[in-house]
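Section 5: illustrative case.
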């Protein structure tokens, strides 16, 4: 006997019922909050391929844009500032989702303005502003302007570019109703700041507001950071296989740099390569030194994928390892494991800092002179973000860890032979259940490359 079908009433949607903040993918009953990081802690951390595809969701870049801008708006609203004027390229990318060549990173010739009431304004290098009008539809076309204040003095300040730019900024602040409120600035050339102050603007520190905004990474940001870490995993396999007597530190750097760009890196900022007698103290560079049998050698891969960075150390010995080298590695690994075990939401940063050795334990007189050897630092668009945890600062200014933070944990231990040293670094995502390591090249025990 056939079932009687129920009559389904057609749902009528009227224009006044449409909410522009509602997203179809959320369903008709769910409102989309752009500042929600959308973490999926019940799933493994994703490291998909670089290509976009139509059969699975990977990184949603428009969602990433909206999240970063919403985080900035919320941080600005919680401050006493009326607007943010940023020159730091990481802050500019975070707010406006624009970027040009890495050569611009230290030129202070691109800047971005965001008021509490408006959309981002972008001043860029010549034709780049016109490019954004075509290829960055998330920005209002009339908010992309050409800008130049002299390329760090190459154009003499007598030309008046600083004053012209300051007037332009003040006009926008007046139009958007915040000219009487303090203006937050991150990094700036002194003449630009003086020009803003001459117009009566109250210039304050805006960098802390931006670091607060960038502190919690969204699902998309964590995915990009994990993809960047996966690139480092592959390069360390190449280094492990290539590390033989007669190879120069610089050749390893060249090989790693080439491989990273082949994988899709948009910036290889640095590859530290240190071997043999150069290991202690840590020089933070590379040379053309030849690798020799029995050398301890450590490397740091500092690069970015879609702007999101790695800071990823690994230590090897070449052919064989001495007891002094193995012992140093075990100590560095123990400090690493002790620190990672403490990393949980709600834990104060001073408690983590106490897991690291005092400066005197590794042969340094002060915490300042030992800084950067045993510590944690946030990772994102910048290499050093929040949280930054060390004995230098965290015992004086502790704060609480939160789920969604991503940071690197670094340890260093000099060997008793006076020249060797172990250097390890793990990148971690702070989940509600603790730290999840995303740097996966094996590092629990000292790797011996091309063992004899």
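Designed sequence:
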């Amino acid at each position: 006997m056939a079932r009687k079908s129920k009559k389904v009433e057609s749902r009528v949607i009227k224009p006044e019922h449409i909410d522009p903040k509602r997203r179809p993918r959320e369903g008709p009953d769910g409102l989309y909050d752009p500042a929600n990081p959308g973490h999926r802690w019940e799933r493994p951390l994703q490291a998909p391929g670089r290509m976009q595809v139509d059969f699975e969701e990977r990184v949603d870049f428009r969602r990433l844009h909206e999240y970063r801008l919403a985080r900035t708006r919320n941080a600005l609203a919680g401050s006493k500032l009326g607007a943010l004027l940023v020159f730091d390229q990481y802050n500019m990318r975070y707010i406006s989702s624009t970027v040009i060549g890495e050569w611009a990173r230290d030129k202070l010739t691109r800047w971005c303005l965001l008021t509490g009431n408006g959309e981002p304004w972008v001043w860029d290098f010549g034709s780049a502003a016109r490019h954004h009008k075509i290829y960055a539809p998330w920005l209002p076309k009339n908010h992309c302007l050409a800008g130049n204040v002299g390329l760090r003095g190459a154009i003499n300040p007598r030309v008046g570019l600083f004053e012209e730019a300051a007037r332009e900024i003040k006009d926008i602040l007046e139009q958007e109703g915040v000219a009487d409120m303090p203006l937050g600035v991150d990094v700036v050339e002194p003449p630009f700041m003086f020009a803003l102050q001459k117009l009566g603007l109250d210039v304050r520190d805006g960098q802390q507001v931006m670091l607060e905004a960038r502190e919690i990474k969204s699902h998309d940001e964590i995915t990009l950071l994990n993809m960047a870490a996966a690139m480092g995993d592959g390069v360390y396999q190449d280094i492990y296989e290539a590390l033989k007597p007669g190879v120069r530190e610089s050749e390893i750097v060249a090989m790693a740099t080439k491989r990273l760009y082949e994988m899709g890196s948009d910036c290889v900022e640095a590859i530290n390569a240190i071997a043999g007698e150069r290991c202690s103290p840590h020089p933070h560079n590379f040379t053309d030194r030849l690798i020799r049998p029995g050398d301890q050698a450590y490397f740091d891969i500092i690069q970015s994928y879609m702007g999101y960075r790695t800071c990823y150390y690994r230590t090897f010995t070449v052919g064989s390892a001495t007891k002094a080298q193995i012992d140093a590695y075990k100590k560095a690994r123990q400090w690493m494991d002790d620190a990672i075990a403490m990393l949980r939401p709600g834990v104060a940063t001073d408690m983590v800092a106490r897991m690291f050795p005092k400066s005197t334990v590794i042969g340094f007189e002060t915490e300042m002179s030992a800084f950067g050897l045993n510590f944690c630092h946030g990772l994102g668009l910048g290499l050093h973000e929040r949280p930054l945890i060390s004995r230098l600062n965290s015992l004086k200014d502790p704060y609480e860890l939160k789920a969604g933070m991503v940071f690197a944990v670094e340890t260093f231990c000099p060997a008793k032979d006076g020249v060797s040293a172990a250097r390890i670094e793990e990148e971690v995502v702070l989940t509600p259940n603790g730290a999840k390591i995303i740097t996966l090249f094996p590092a629990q025990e000292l790797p011996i490359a091309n063992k004899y």
